[in-house]
Amino acid sequence: MAVNEGMSSLSDHLFGSGMAVYAAAMLGYAAEFAFSRLGTRSAAADAGAAEGSAAGATSVDAAAEVPAARVAAGQPAVLVGVGAAADAGAGAGAGAGAATAAPTAADRTGEIEAVRQRDRAAHTLSAGNDGDVEVPARARWIGRIAVWLTVVGWALHLSSVVTRGVAADRVPWGNMYEYSSMICLIAVTTFLGLMIRHNVRWLGVFIMVPVVLYLGFAGTVLYVAPGPLVPALNSYWLKIHVVGAILASGIFLVSAVTTLLFLLKERWENRLAEVAAGRAEANRAMQNRGGIVMRLPSSAALDTLTYRVIAFAFPIWTFAIIAGAIWAEAAWGRYWGWDPKETWSFITWVCYAAYLHARATAGWRGRRAAAISLVAFCALFVDYYLVNLVINGLHSYAGV
Amino acid sequence: MTSSTRSSSTSLDVDPSGGDSAGADVGAAGAEGVGFDADPAARRRLPDGHADAGVVVLPDAFAPPVRAGDGGPDDPVSAASASGATRGAAGGPAARRAGGGAGRNPVLAVAIRSWRQLTSMRTALLLLFLLALAAVPGSLLPQRNINPMRVEQYLNDHPTLGPMLDRLSGFDVFSAPWFAAIYLLLFISLIGCLSSRIRWHARALFTAPPKAPARPGRLPGGSSWASPLPPADAAAAARAALRGRRFRASASGADARRPDGTPDHSVAAEKGYLRETGNLLFHVALVGLLAAVGFGSWFGYQGTTLVVTGDGFANTLISYDQFTGGKLVDTARLKPFSLTLNRFQASYEANGEPSDFRADVSYSSDLDAPTRQAVVRVNHPLVLGNAKVYLIGHGYAPHFLLRDARGRTVWQGNVPCTPRDGMFTSTCTVKIPDAGLPPLGAQRVPQQLAFSGVFTPTTQLDPTHGYVSIYPAARAPGLTITGYVGNLHLDEGVPQNVYTVDTRDMRQLSLTGPAGANRTAQVLALNNRDQRTLTGLPGGLSLEVNSVAEFATFQVKSDPFKDEALLFAVLIILGLIASLRVRRRRVWVRARPAAGGGSTVEIGGLSRSHGDGFASELGQLTIAVREATTPAAAPSAGPAPATAPATAEAAGSAEATRDEAPGNDETPGNAVVPDGTSTQDEGAPTAPSGTRSGDAADGGATSRASEREQ
Predict the structure, then answer these.
(1) What is the DSSP string of A326-363?
(2) Which of A73, A77, A350 sits opposite B12 (nearest CB)?
(3) Where does the pLDDT of residue A7 fall: very low under 50, low under 70, confident under 90, or very high at 90 and above?
(4) Which one is predicted more confidently, A227 or B223?
(5) Cβ–Cβ contact B332 with A under 8 A
(6) How far is CA B540 from CA A311, B413, B449, B506, B534, in A?
(7) CA-to-CA distance for A218 and A211, rounded, in angstroms?
(8) Which of A191, A201, B4, B97 is least surrounded by CB atoms within 10 angstroms?
């Protein structure tokens, strides 16, 4: 079957322009991120704090607010509240200082109220601690433009995939370049899907950076001109099994990004608790209420987001493996032969299953589960790249 | 072990399993604040995966149902139940009983403790990791079942490391005993855990949900309001409303009493059992899949056979060239099907790439079954019951005729030649043990003939390489051949390779053929009658190669449990989807008598997974129950006021209704503290002002009008 050269070059142009638009969107997200300001509530506490002399006290005031989110991650509310209240002497957080001695009925209700607010705040996906982020109007406009640029870039990317399929007269996922392009498309689609339901614009820059890099790698190193499928791939199962694998991989890419963000934020929150307890120095970023990590939502929210993304993609990955087994039975006569690709898909599946188990096991939530999630993503990476390019097996014909 | 399990909970978990002072404070405060009935033993069992959101941990919120008659806290068994806490109440009641019994027998105690360790989540995690890790060498090292030649290559290349790896089953990782140990342990752990959880889930399905706490309104998202109905009716109305929303709701009985003796009017509702059902289904299906794979490998077999066109094949052990069967396969009782290869056709592109292969066979699927025709293609096997016959390869089998000096045929046959490259250059080996030549010498050394050659389907003479094949189809078949006579050692009972000739006891012949006399090698053109005969063989024999037939290689695979494996795989996916998407949640309603004849109704709920939209669902349920319990008027002030989780809808409707009900300014604040006294003052003004209709909440109420009791 002849390859449509015009469509092929159109596809390449669309790919390049999509990438450029993604890069512009990435800059837009970064700009919005950079120009937002943290801690309007902390600013008010600042003004009201009696001893506002040292920058340390200011940051500790801010810290008194901020660990509210940390509480949700598991430290007993009372402990942190007591610590902060003792240090800052500010009753900024309504219920924070209440539970010192035997709490009265009013104190207890206030405490319950505070706990409820923290609980609610801890799991909101809005940026900054407890949504405590002030974004100046111009930065907000840049952010909105970035979202629109993402949509435009997504449309260009989608068109490049479609035209490539038209050019080669087959579904556009038959070699490594096309797989990578599709995975990035799915990752951006996932991000846009999350944007529809929650306000996750803060995630924008962190998704766009790997997507742009990945597309660059695909377009340069992995690129091949469109051509027919190798005969062994000529089956309707290609549309089922490979689509499932690509979908799941794109979504797992998003979960890897959120996992990294969770680890960063959790480390920062730990450090902040240390600062609040007076055991450590507040670093410059904390003092100025600046810093990237501060603007992320609470670690509990990031953890929940990671879990839900992985829980969404895991059944799809399971389906992809099973569809692959059915295809293998039809083509090779056995549904499982421990081919390297099959083995590494299995390893990836087991690792994500371990993540889901870890989240239900006492002592393994939080940082350890996040580590498992990263290990699982590495297994996925190996499954996609090392198995195809390095290890010799039945899947090597997928072509580079 | 107690300390280790307790300390294993990091700061990220609220672990009320005894002794944590801050946690206990909060827990105690919370327990009194919300009012779950005190059950110190139950408090130890922290349910896994509970949304530890810093909210007061409600110890028995999602614990497995406690059997009546289980005693209170027992110090000697606190160790056992603390370790059970890590398993999400896996130990529970059984732990207490077993712990008590184990005190008498140390061996039994060790056994029980080991079993509990084995079936704990942490062990499952560890085994999962080990499984993943163990599979890695199976993908990096060559494996015998996939490519035995590469294994041999590896052993040749690594003379010291290779045999060591071989002894550790490095080349048979997936049938290695240590790999089997890992997944068998994992499945034993799984089955042990499943057996308890299935029992608990069955119990939960058939018993009432846990009773409502004293103050459900204090749960996050909870609220309370005044209702004109007496408590019993309010509870019944609430139950009907909840049942209308497809909750399993049970109201307390007419004579039920709270622990302090006051009458109990409450409703306990639960929904989302499908989550646990799906979870159990997934894990049971995993066990089923393993069983199907195991049985399939025990009862399954596969073999390859080579069939020359015109010949047949019957499914018996001896007909196979290579056969591997599972341990429980009775090779004397293989399914007796047979087939005959009538014709084989291969078509090629112009550049020699294959485009299609087809084998026309007539087959009979059983001993007395009628003969049918079929076409076997690559990737389109012939299905005969549980067995599938795949076409996996083909090649050429030239026809050799050995004649004696008088022209009578001594021996003839199609000898398959092994293809070596894409153009089907093939090596041929012909062994003729009974050529009719008399044995030589005093030792009666047998004189047997052997020929070895290279067959080229489309022959061309290449200056450097000699005769090569330039196209895979047999357009100009040629055979470059050389011969030997001597002792083939075929009659000694030692098997030898069909495709190679051991010439140590043979001498090479001088052949006469198309190229002249007394040559060691000759080139025969099979389509040319004058150039396809070799003479000069001992005893006046002559060899003619007069035609070429094709052969096909078939692979027969039988796996009787394939369909079961597929069924379990489908169940795995269905169970997984249900267990990850469905939320388990509980809602409680309590009605307390209020002065003036009405009642104060409180509602509250808990969801196992956080932030999943339960807040908005609770808001909607609150609307529904409020309407059901305030039948004379539209809901006065929207759903859970300010303290409800600020989701868009709840906040929106709360704002809207609050704007329209200025007289109820105090209600939101009061609802936070569901103190009976203050609310009952609101009871009077609330009812009449609630007559305003057209609230935002009412829009959704019309569909639920049918749920009202009156």
Answers:
(1) HHHHHHHS-S----HHHHHHHHHHHHHHHHHHHTTSTT
(2) A73
(3) confident
(4) B223
(5) no
(6) 81, 20, 13, 18, 11
(7) 10
(8) B4
Amino acid at B509: L
Q: Please tell me the distance from the alpha carbon of residue A241 to that of residue B370, in angstroms, as a whole number.
A: 39
Assess whether pLDDT exceeds 90 at residue B655: no
Please say if the pLDDT value at position B361 is more than 60.
Answer: yes
**Contacts of residue A119 in chain B, CB cutoff 8 Å?**
53-55, 220
H runs (alpha helix) in B35-160: 40-44, 75-85, 92-102, 106-118, 121-140, 148-157
Q: Which residues contact A389 (CB under 8 A, 6 or more apart)?
A: A176, A400
Q: Which residues contact B544 (CB under 8 A, 6 or more apart)?
A: B400, B401, B403, B532, B533, B534
Please tell me the distance from the alpha carbon of residue A305 to that of residue A317, in angstroms, as a whole number.
18
What pLDDT score was predicted for residue B199? 93
Number of Cβ within 10 Å of residue A175's Cβ equals 22
Alpha helices in B555-647 (DSSP H): 562-581, 614-629
B46 or A247, higher pLDDT: A247
Closest CA to B301 of B321, B327, B338, B319: B327
Residue B133: both structure tokens together: 């890790």
- CA of A335: which chain B residue's CA is closest? B562
For the full predicted model, state whether its pTM sits above 0.95.
no
Q: Out of A122, A366, A387, whose CB is closest to B12?
A: A366
* Separation CA A269–CA A124 (nearest Å): 16
Tell me, what's the ipTM?
A: 0.78
Query: Amino acid letter at B129?
Result: F
Amino acid making up residue B423: M
Phi, psi (rounded to 5 degrees) for A360: -105, 10
Q: Over the stretch A139-183, which tens digit does the pLDDT of each residue have?
A: 888 989 999 999 999 999 999 999 999 888 888 887 889 999 999
Specify whether the CB–CB gap between A163 and A10 falls below 8 A.
Answer: yes
